[in-house]
Design goal:
Shape: globular
Helix content: 10-25%
CATH topology of the largest domain: Glutaconate Coenzyme A-transferase
Number of helices: 13
Oligomer: single chain
Strand order of the largest sheet: 13-12-11-10-14-19-23-24
CATH architecture of the largest domain: 3-Layer(aba) Sandwich
CATH class of the largest domain: Alpha Beta
Structural class: alpha/beta
Low-confidence stretches: 1-9
Number of strands: 24
Largest sheet: 8 strands, mixed
Mean pLDDT: 94
Distance between the termini: 71 Å
Strand content: 15-25%
């Protein structure tokens, strides 16, 4: 009976027949079965370390993962040539594996991935990382829930890594200890997420801040701009957070009195500093939920004053956004940006903001048209504002020609003349 479990009590005294040593975890994988491995701050690093120790462990293996670039490094060098990984995010080091068919990048958003799990794939083994059980026998997924609820509804078998460093987060999804088929005790640090700011990033954040009013519901993505933006919103009042990821800025805004403390601030992932993981344990107005909730288009459509802030690699003069490719090479995925951008665009009193630096090492990020060697991650109908360090391009309510002019004005000055010439040529064909 799990009702008698006490925190700190040796787990092996509870259900000895379920416990396995770390070295035995790869033996749970059977050829051609699907194994789900979560990402972000819930990535089961101890499992992956053992799995990639010997290529034979992954012979004919089929892994489905939500590893996130910038937080999780996915190294397939230790996999057997017949093993295959399917994921949401491309990473540059996976280019060869993708061409060889050993890595399959799914071009779908987070909401789409929930549906993919629900309707199109059978999960034979779910590998999840949890806190030690509480006095009621419940294990917390701690700072990372992501797709786990949807996966557990499908999984035939469950391997729980009871990680001594996974905090019990109030408001996070919990799993009964006695629902785990296999248990392995580990002691693995959570990934630290820390992005340094710079003058260009701070300039972008300063331009975004006036677009976010008191009482707004705010979503931000990964990267430098969201981090800098949080620091510039400390004077706001009544802010509500609904995002795919929350970090140290959550607690900074709370300490500044900027948050509505009667609102359940929502995310599917928490990732940040070590101090953040410690302090977030007792932050009450918070829920960490599955992407079936955080990215549900029906729920998002009901959010008024929903302001979404996402980044892009390129934006063209029509307002189309590329979030995934550079120089023809795939380097990332769309993540939850399409889900949130569309919701912000349609929200009553809300808006969809795209933030990016005006230039990169090879030229302008504001381009005449997205090229033939790239993709359109966000269509022009899902963007209200484009913000660079040079200002704000208001696309909401603007005509095709007015949009182009506004975007040219937030490009780097040295590229504006060329962009104007290019737009004249495009406009003559419209």
């Amino acid at each position: 009976m799990t009702a008698n479990i006490q925190v700190g009590r040796p787990l092996k005294s509870l259900q000895r027949n379920r416990f396995i040593d770390p070295q035995a975890m790869p033996s749970l994988i059977r050829p051609d079965e699907w194994v789900f491995v979560p990402g972000s701050s819930g990535a089961p690093l101890a499992f992956m370390e053992q799995l990639l120790h010997d290529p034979e462990f992954t012979r004919n293996a089929r892994l489905l993962t939500s590893y996130v670039p910038g937080i999780n490094a996915l190294d397939l060098a230790g996999m057997h040539p017949t093993g295959q990984v399917t994921g949401l995010f491309m990473q540059p080091e996976l280019a060869v594996a993708q061409r060889e068919g050993r890595f399959r990048a799914l071009p779908i958003s987070y909401a789409g991935f929930v549906r993919h799990i629900t309707e199109q794939v059978d999960i034979d083994l779910a590998v999840i990382q949890l806190s030690p059980p509480d006095e009621n026998g419940m294990c917390s997924l701690g700072p990372s829930v992501e797709f786990t609820p949807a996966v557990l509804r499908k999984a035939r078998r469950r391997l729980g890594l009871i990680n001594l460093q996974t905090p019990i987060v109030r408001g996070s999804y919990t799993v009964p200890f006695n629902s785990l088929d296999y248990v392995c005790e580990v002691d693995t640090p959570l990934p630290i997420y820390d992005v340094p700011s710079d003058s260009g990033t701070e300039a972008i954040a300063r331009h975004i801040a006036p677009l976010i009013e008191d009482g707004a519901v705010l979503q931000t993505g990964l990267g430098k701009v969201p981090t800098a933006l949080m620091s510039m919103l400390r004077s706001r009042r009544g802010l509500k957070l609904h995002s795919g990821m929350l970090s140290d800025g959550l607690l900074e805004l709370a300490a500044a009195g900027a948050l509505d403390m009667n609102y359940l601030h929502t995310s599917c992932v928490l990732v940040g500093s070590r101090a953040f993981y410690e302090k977030i344990r007792d932050f009450h107005p918070l829920r960490v939920v599955g992407c079936d909730i955080s990215h549900d288009p029906v729920l998002l459509a009901k959010l008024d004053h929903f302001v979404t802030v996402n980044s892009a690699l390129e934006v063209d003069l029509f307002g189309q956004c590329n979030l995934e490719m550079t120089r023809g090479a795939a380097i990332s995925g769309c993540g939850g940006a399409p889900d949130f951008a569309r919701a912000g665009r349609l929200s009553r009193g809300g808006c969809s903001i795209i933030a990016l630096h005006a230039t990169h090492r090879r030229g302008s990020r504001i381009v005449p048209m997205l090229g033939p060697q790239t993709v359109t991650t966000l269509s022009r109908v899902d963007v209200d504002f484009v913000v660079t360090e040079y200002g704000v391009a208001r696309l909401k309510g603007a005509s095709v020609h007015e949009r182009a002019e506004a975007l040219i004005q937030v490009a780097a000055p040295e590229y504006r003349s060329d962009l104007q010439d290019a737009w004249r040529a495009i406009a003559n064909r419209l």
